[in-house]
Amino acid sequence: MSGVAADGVATRRFGGMRVEHIMGTAIGIDVRDPGVDLAAVDAAFEWFRDVDRRFSTYRADSEISRIGSGALDASAASEDVRAILALCDDLTRTTGGAFDATRHRADGSLDPSGVVKGWAVDEAARILEAAGGRNFTINAGGDVVARGTPDGSRGWRVGIRHPRIADRVAAVLEVSDRAVATSADYERPGHIRDPRRDGGPASGGKFDLLSMTVVGPSLTWADAYATAAFVMGEAGAAWVAERPGYGAIAITTDDRVIWTPEADALRA
Amino acid sequence: MFPKRGAIAIVLTALALVLLVSFKTPDDFGRLGNGRTAGIVAPGPSGAPGATAAPSAGDGGALGATGPTPRPSAGRPSAAPTAAAATGQVTGTVVETRFGPVQVRATFQNGRIMDVQAVQLPSDRARSAQISQYAEPYLRSEALQAQSAQIDIVSGATYTSEGYARSLQSAIDQAQHQ
Questions:
Q1: Does ipTM exceed 0.85?
Q2: Cβ B153–A139 below 8 Å, yes or no?
C-alpha cells in the first residue's frame, strides 16, 4: 500500500490500512487520500506509543502510575498529563460522579483510561490532518474517528458491534467528521465499575445496558460520555442527548435499542 | 404477493400503537427505574395489539444462547400470521395520538416482519426534551446485518486484539460479499 512514488520522489506515500498493537489494543489507521506522507502515519503510531508510555496504568514507570503511587506530584507532570487530569475532574463534575478517574478501579488507583484513548485518537487525527489527510479513519479498540469520506460519494459507514454476537453489527451509522465510541463490558466482563456505588454495577449485580455508543464531534468527549453513560443505564441515553452535538445508541439487557435524535439522524 | 390490505393495516396499526407505548415522553423519565417498556411486538393470531408472538426458531436461538441474560419474550417480534405470504415494504396509516402522529413502515419477507421503521414520530416534542426514545426489536438489527456489506469500520468494546480481529475480519468478510 505504500512505497516510493512512481514519479521517483523519495517521499513515501501512504494509502491504505495499517494496524499496530499499542495501548493494550489494536489501533488501525485507514487513509484514503493517496498522497499522505507515510511519515505522518509513522508519527501517529509513535504518538500512540508515547501516550502509552506516559499514561499506561500497566507500566509502573508511567506518569499516571507514579502519580497514583505518590512518586510523582500531579503538578509536576507533563502538560498533557495535567490536561487529562483536569479533563477528568471536569468530567466527574459533569457526570455527577458517573465518571471518576480515581474510582473506576477496584483498588481505587488513578485510571484516566476512560478519556485517554479518545483524546489520543483525536490528537493522532490532527497529526494526519496536518499532513494533508482529509479522508481517513482511526480505530483504537473500537473507538473510532472518521474524517471525510471513504470513496468521495458518501460518509463512512460505522457498524456498532452486536453486544451478544461478536461478528455481527447491531446498527450502522453513516458519518463524516465524527467520532464514535462504544462502552460495554461484553469484551472484558466486570471491568466497568460505577464510581458512585463503590464500583458495583448501577443496578446491583448487572448493568441495565449491554452497550452504550456515543457519536459526536470529538472522540475525547464521546469516549468519556460513553464510559459515564454506560453506568447510568437507560437514563444515560437521555443524559447524552442533552450534550449539544452528541447522540447515543443504547442497547439494553432486554434487547432494546434506544436511539437519541442526534444519533438517529446519522442512521445509515 | 401481498396479503389482503385489511390484514396489513391491522398489523401496522398495531405496530404503531406498540411503538407509541414504547415511546417515552419526558414525563416518563422519572419512572425509568421501575416501569420498563417492552419492545415492539407483533400482534398475535387474534390481531390484538400487544399480544406477544413467540420468537421464531431460526433466529431467536442465536441471540438467546450466547447472551448472558435471559431474554424476555416480549423483546422480539415475529411474523404475524395475517401477513403470511407478504414480501415487500408496506407503510401503515398515520395514527393520531396525543403526542402527535405516528406512522411506521414494515418490511415483510415471506410473511415475516424483517424490519420496522418509524416514518413519523412526535419528534418535535421529543426534541424539545432532547430525547426521542423508542424501542426497536433486534429483528431490525438483523435486517441491518444483511445490509452490512457496506460497513467500513466497526465500533465496539473490542479491547482485546482478539475481539478487534474478529470484528475487523467480519467487516472485511461482509465487504467481500458486496
A1: no
A2: yes
